[in-house]
Write a structure and sequence with these properties.
- This protein is α/β, with parallel strands linked by helices and 214 residues long.
- Helices cover 40% and strands 21% of the residues.
- The chain has two domains: 2-61 and 175-210, Periplasmic binding protein-like II (D-Maltodextrin-Binding Protein, domain 2); 64-172, 3-Layer(aba) Sandwich (D-Maltodextrin-Binding Protein, domain 2), CATH 3.40.190.
- Strands 1, 2, 3, 4, 5, 6 and 7 form a seven-stranded mixed sheet that branches.
- The mean pLDDT is 90.
């Protein structure tokens, strides 16, 4: 999407990825950025702090959570909560990150009543990419829980022996919304507002949908 915008507007667009807590910290610390993309709760904080341009927030889409396994693991897609619980309790490790999706995964294990049974087998890493890296680096048996968009990005890179098993069952699914906004006080504020707006267009949504953001 950024490449398409750059071609159409003869502009250079550089993209950096970070977890929602990292985005909040980096922006409040004065990150040198023109456009920020984050969940609404982070955007609310940035708006209160006067970091983003009022009226520039644009809804991009929602990302659901999914299951990732080693490419050689004989794991099938799960369609109900009981099958999901069996998959997790039979795994050699259940991996999630420290971001918002990881916080949901940790709470989900508690809500499903399997956190105690998994004691010692839950692995917490820093990022979504770290989830895939752990699963790919270990023998088949580890199961990762992460944003579907992050899973598809890592699979597209084709550098790890991992595969997308499927989304979490609907009954325990979690969705994270994302918005874009221009950062206030930048020299290129008008261009930043144009990019944030472009990211909410139908053409951009087609690109996002291909990565798992609906």
């Amino acid at each position: 999407m950024s490449q398409a915008y750059a071609r159409e507007h003869d502009a250079e667009v550089k993209v950096e990825f970070a977890t929602a807590p990292e985005v909040r910290k980096r922006m409040t610390d004065g990150e040198d950025a023109d456009v920020v993309v984050a969940p609404p709760v982070v955007m609310d904080d940035l708006a209160k702090a006067g970091i983003i341009v009022p009226g520039s927030r644009a809804f991009l889409g929602r990302s659901r959570m999914g299951i990732v396994a080693h490419a050689q693991a004989p794991v099938r897609e799960v369609f109900d909560v009981n099958a999901f619980k069996r998959l997790l309790t039979s795994a050699t490790a259940v991996v999630h990150n420290k971001a918002s999706s990881g916080a949901y995964a940790a709470k989900l294990l508690q809500d499903l009543g399997i956190a105690e049974a998994l004691s010692g087998r839950v692995v917490v890493v820093d990022s979504g990419a770290g989830v895939m890296e752990y699963v790919g680096a270990n023998q088949p048996g580890a199961v990762g829980l992460a944003q579907i968009s992050e899973i598809r990005v890592m699979i597209a890179k084709a550098t790890l022996p991992i595969r997308f098993v499927g989304p979490l069952p609907d009954a325990v699914q979690n969705e994270t919304s994302y918005e874009a906004a221009a950062v206030a006080g930048r020299d290129e504020e008008s261009a930043a507002k144009a990019l944030a707006s472009y990211m909410a267009t139908p053409d951009a949504h087609v690109v996002f949908a291909a990565t798992g953001i609906d």
